[in-house]
């Protein structure tokens, strides 16, 4: 009978469901904006230009602190992710170690 | 860099005045009588003083030729003196039309060349070499006895009315030409002609002068109100733009906050998972 780790099962399940849900919602939203802004009428053209103007007038440095925190959190997340594989590697090495010594 | 004066255009000097029709001399005789008379009046001629249509045609042709031979700067002097609303690049015909509307007999401030142009437009034969005093005297003589008496009477009535309503002395602002069509429409409009009520009544009569003053006052009031409305709209648009900018910044800050919370939660769960993996590996391998 396979050994089930419920913590990892829950963690991976939630991770996959949340990722797929967020991706689908984001793509739907992007598609909706694309369809709206791709129209050729005068008012949509005005709206396109207005959005561009608003984007150009955006002061990036106002949000620089928060964005830096986000980047650092992403880096921390990647490091922790890699640490998982390091621990799994240690476990494999420890599990393989005694067998190797026995064959000698 | 030298400033080049704008070239004369055929556009009307201001919206209320239509340009003179460009009718060749040979076609003038074909015009209907009323149109010919209107054209003659616009050029400062008296249609009734010409016996036949042919005489009037000849007079109109002569006046048009005289306008064509006039010095444009001298015509601008007259327009400036008479404070008529014209664009600086108005054509000679448009300037002549405006000069013909000037009825003033107060020649103070008019240049000599301007006086010659005015005299020509009022039907006098001048060579330009006459002394200005003589020309002014001839113009006054040309006005006629009854017209002068009527003007004096109107002047007295005008002073009386002006005194009655307590009109203040208008400030003599520098004359400004109307903006030409090539210039931007955002340019400030020229100030309204600051003429005394007494002078207006003297030139146009009691009712004409008062009506003109009421019209000008209404125009000034209307312009002020329109300016106020425009300024209010501009302020509103600025306010809307500022609020949209604030809303955009708040929205972006809010999205970034949500992203940060999600990342904090992900990192916390990842750390918990790491701890759990470490503990489970530690105990499994013992």
Keyword list:
A: 104 residues, 2 domains, 85% helix, B: 286 residues, mainly alpha, 10 helices, 64% helix, elongated, disordered N terminus
Describe the model.
The complex is a heterodimer of chains A (104) and B (286). With 104 residues, chain A is an all-alpha fold. Chain A has 3 helices and no strands. Chain A has helices spanning 6-37, 42-57, 64-103. Chain A is elongated. Chain A starts with 5 loop residues before the first helix and ends with a helix. The model of chain A has no long low-confidence stretch (mean pLDDT 88). With 286 residues, chain B is mainly α. Chain B folds into 2 domains: 25-195, no CATH class; 205-286. In chain B, helix 4 (72-82) crosses helix 6 (112-121), helix 8 (145-165) packs antiparallel against helix 9 (197-204) and helix 9 crosses helix 10. The longest helix of chain B is centred in the C-terminal third of the chain and has 79 residues, at 206-284. The model of chain B is unreliable at 1-19 and 184-193 (pLDDT under 50). At the A-B interface, helix 1 and helix 3 of A face helix 10 of B.
Number of strands of chain B: 0
What's the end-to-end separation of chain B, in Å? 93 Å
Topology pattern of chain A, helix = H, strand = E: HHH
What is the number of helices of chain B? 10
**Largest interface, counted with CB-CB under 8 A?**
A-B, 28 and 26 residues
Strand fraction band of chain B?
under 5%
Any idea what the shape of chain B is? elongated
| Main beta-sheet strand count, sense and barrel state of chain B | none
Main beta sheet of chain A: strand number and arrangement?
A: none
Return the structural class of chain B: mainly alpha
Report the mean per-residue pLDDT of chain A as an integer. 88
Q: CA-to-CA gap between the ends of chain A?
A: 32 Å
User: Roughly how much helix do the residues of chain B carry, as a percent range?
Assistant: 55-70%
Indicate how many domains the architecture of chain B comprises. Answer: 2
Strand content of chain A: under 5%
Residue share in helix of chain A:
over 70%
* Order of helical and strand elements of chain B: HHHHHHHHHH
Computed over alpha carbons, the radius of gyration of chain A is 24 Å
Radius of gyration of chain B: 35 Å
Mean pLDDT of chain B: 79
């Amino acid at each position: 009978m396979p050994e089930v780790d419920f913590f990892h099962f829950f963690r991976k399940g939630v991770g996959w469901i949340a990722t797929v849900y967020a991706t689908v919602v984001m793509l739907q939203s992007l598609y909706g904006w694309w369809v709206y802004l791709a129209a050729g009428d005068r008012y949509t053209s005005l709206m396109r230009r207005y959005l561009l103007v608003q984007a150009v007038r955006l002061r990036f440095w106002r949000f620089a602190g928060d964005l830096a925190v986000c980047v650092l959190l992403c880096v921390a997340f990647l490091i922790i992710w890699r640490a998982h594989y390091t621990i799994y590697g240690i476990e494999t090495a420890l599990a393989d170690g005694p067998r190797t010594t026995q064959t000698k | 860099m030298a400033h080049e004066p704008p070239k004369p255009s055929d556009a009307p000097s201001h919206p209320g005045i239509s340009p003179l029709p460009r009718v060749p001399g040979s076609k003038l005789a074909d015009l209907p009588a009323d149109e010919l008379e209107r054209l003659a009046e616009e050029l400062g001629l008296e249609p009734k003083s010409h016996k036949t249509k042919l005489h009037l045609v000849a007079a109109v042709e002569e006046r048009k030729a005289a306008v064509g031979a006039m010095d444009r700067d001298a015509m601008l002097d007259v327009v400036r003196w008479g404070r008529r609303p014209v664009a600086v690049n108005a054509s000679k015909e448009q300037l002549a039309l405006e000069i013909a509307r000037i009825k003033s007999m107060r020649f103070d401030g008019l240049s000599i060349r301007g006086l010659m142009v005015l005299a020509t437009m009022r039907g006098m034969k001048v060579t330009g070499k006459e002394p200005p005093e003589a020309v002014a005297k001839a113009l006054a003589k040309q006005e006629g006895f009854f017209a002068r008496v009527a003007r004096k009477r109107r002047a007295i009535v005008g002073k009386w009315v002006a005194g009655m309503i307590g009109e203040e002395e208008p400030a003599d602002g520098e004359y400004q030409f109307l903006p030409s069509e090539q210039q931007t429409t955002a340019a400030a409009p020229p100030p309204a002609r600051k003429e005394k009520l007494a002078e207006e009544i003297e030139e146009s009569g009691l009712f004409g002068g008062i009506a003109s003053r009421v019209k000008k006052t209404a125009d000034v009031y209307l312009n002020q109100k329109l300016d106020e409305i425009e300024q209010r709209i501009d302020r509103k648009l600025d306010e809307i733009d500022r609020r949209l900018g604030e809303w955009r910044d708040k929205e972006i800050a809010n999205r970034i906050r949500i992203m940060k919370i999600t990342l904090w939660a992900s990192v916390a769960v990842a750390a918990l998972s790491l701890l759990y993996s470490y503990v489970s590996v530690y105990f499994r391998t013992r």
